[in-house]
Design goal:
The chain is built from 16 helices and 22 strands. It has about 500 residues and is an alpha+beta fold. Strand 19 and strand 20 form a beta hairpin.
């Protein structure tokens, strides 16, 4: 197929150039009704592109024309049977994967490192989660991937499950053995659903990891906006016809879960991002990898700093391949700030407030910087200069102490399914020691990466309570609870 084309974007421009008088939504009428405060900043064209289902521009839920062409090109690029654009992120894609494969009361095998959006899929579908513990990389203290042996053991004990849902790579670029996961799932006649949100660029350069789409997965969700040049909120989902997925049910799930008024600006950005990746991906990622390797090498020369790299493929049995575009900056030894230990959370705030630098996330031991299609060497040098200056100010020398682990406590006792907990009677209570033993009615996660510490229907025990309290003290951001400060928590009555 001709990957040089962007048929959807080109078709929208063709329609715009007709200059038709409009008597339909959206209400701004091609920008004429937009306040100058917004229009002066965004310009005219974005509002011209913000169309609705008019003649000739196709429709997300019944693509037969230019949008179908665009999605066919996407499928051709990744090697899937069919692919579909998503306009409510990989969250919506995860919901659709679960909703289309597992029904009310049916089991699904999930890695405990699943993003909290997977819980939404469980609530919508009524599925019963069976969790597999996630492994830990002791060098930088983060959770990585599933042990294939533990995955198979869990499946053997739950052969009535309808699907297997895994998340790989993790936020830090550590990718599991998807082909092996797929072989195990298929051995027991279960489809493999892969949240590959952080791997939209996978398979697009010989020195990048291979995508799950080409490793036997049945459904794969990728966040195009995370690493490619599409708009925030845009993702796509890939379907492989391996005999495990009902395609009609998947399409119905996408119709149910996505807006009937999709944003054409978002959709066109996906089309152009695909075209850019297909035609310029090798050149772009030559440059991106050069930037990432410069950063890794230079940062590793700074006292008190360690940046993990490709060596993890040899040292960690649960990391099959490492994505070099993820720069995990570990603060090792003795770092002090305001006479206290400088955790990764504090380092992120220092970078933000003292050096005007935003990173993707922080945890107790690390900060994470993404290197994407939009990064160049001058960006890298700004970060290097900042970390050098921080080392001079806050690094106090070597110190023998363990890594500040950013790992999950044990998997809690599941008392109710997420759906049962969602609809159960609940109450708000103070988040103090009195909640120990109560059943949670909402999700509590550290964000990023958004992995639930405790989910609706799970019992809060002392270890979980103390873990959450400790992370808040260190500076972690908690998301999910109705009370954003977590002074109060919602529990089952």
């Amino acid at each position: 197929m001709d990957q040089r084309r962007a048929p959807y974007f080109e078709g929208l421009l063709k329609y715009i150039n007709q200059g038709r008088t409009a008597f339909h939504m959206p209400g701004h009428n091609r920008g004429k009704g937009v306040h100058p405060l917004l229009k002066d900043f965004l310009g005219e064209n974005v509002f011209l592109l913000d169309l609705t289902e008019v003649e000739g521009v196709d429709y997300l839920h019944k693509a037969t024309g230019i949008l179908k062409e665009a999605q066919d090109l996407l499928s051709d690029l990744y090697g899937s049977t069919e692919s579909f654009f998503l306009i409510n992120g990989s969250t919506g894609g995860n919901h659709a994967m679960i909703f289309s494969t597992v029904g009310d009361g049916e089991k699904i095998i999930l890695g405990r490192n699943s993003h909290r959006s997977a819980l939404g899929g469980l609530i919508v579908s009524g599925a019963v989660p069976v969790y597999v513990p996630v492994e830990v990389n002791s060098r930088i203290g983060v959770t990585t991937n599933l042990d294939p042996g533990k995955l198979e053991e869990t499946i053997k004990n739950n052969t009535d499950a309808k699907a297997v849902f895994i998340t790989t790579p993790n936020y830090y670029g550590m990718t599991g053995n998807v082909k092996l996961y797929a072989d195990i799932a298929h051995k027991y006649n279960m489809p493999l659903l892969v949240d590959e949100a952080h791997g939209a660029h996978y398979g697009m350069h010989p020195e990048l990891p291979e995508t799950a789409v080409r490793q036997g997965a049945d459904l794969v969700v990728q966040s195009a906006h995370k690493t490619l040049a599409s708009m925030t909120q845009t993702s796509w989902i890939h379907y492989n016809d391996n005999g495990f997925i009902d395609l009609a049910r998947l399409k119905m799930a996408l119709q149910v879960l996505q807006s009937t008024s999709p944003n054409y600006v978002l959709l066109s950005s996906l089309d152009v991002a695909r075209m850019q990746l297909a035609t310029e991906g090798k050149i772009i990622y030559d440059r991106v990898l050069d930037v990432a390797r410069y950063l890794r090498k230079t940062l590793n020369e700074i006292p008190g700093i360690f940046v993990i790299g490709k060596e993890v493929e040899e040292t960690d049995p649960f990391v099959s391949v490492y994505d070099e575009t993820k720069i995990v900056i570990s603060f090792e030894g003795k770092w002090e700030y305001n006479k206290g230990r400088m955790y990764g959370y504090i380092a992120e705030k220092i970078l933000n407030h003292e050096y005007n630098i935003e990173v993707e996330l922080s945890d107790p031991h690390n900060v994470l910087a993404f290197i994407t299609v939009g990064h160049y060497m001058d960006d890298a040098k700004v970060l290097v200069d900042a970390i050098k200056d921080m080392s001079k100010k806050y690094y106090k020398g070597e110190e023998t102490r363990g890594v500040d682990y950013h790992i999950l406590p044990h998997i809690p006792e599941v008392v109710l399914t997420p759906r049962e907990a969602f609809f159960a009677k609940s109450e708000m209570v103070a988040f103090d020691e009195n909640v120990i033993g109560r059943v949670c009615a909402e999700v509590v996660s550290l964000y990023p990466p958004g992995i639930p510490i405790v989910a609706p229907g799970e019992r809060i025990d002392r270890e979980i309570y103390e873990f959450i309290k400790e992370r808040i003290t260190q500076g972690a951001e908690v998301q999910g609870p109705i009370d954003p400060e977590l002074n109060y928590i919602k529990v089952i009555k």
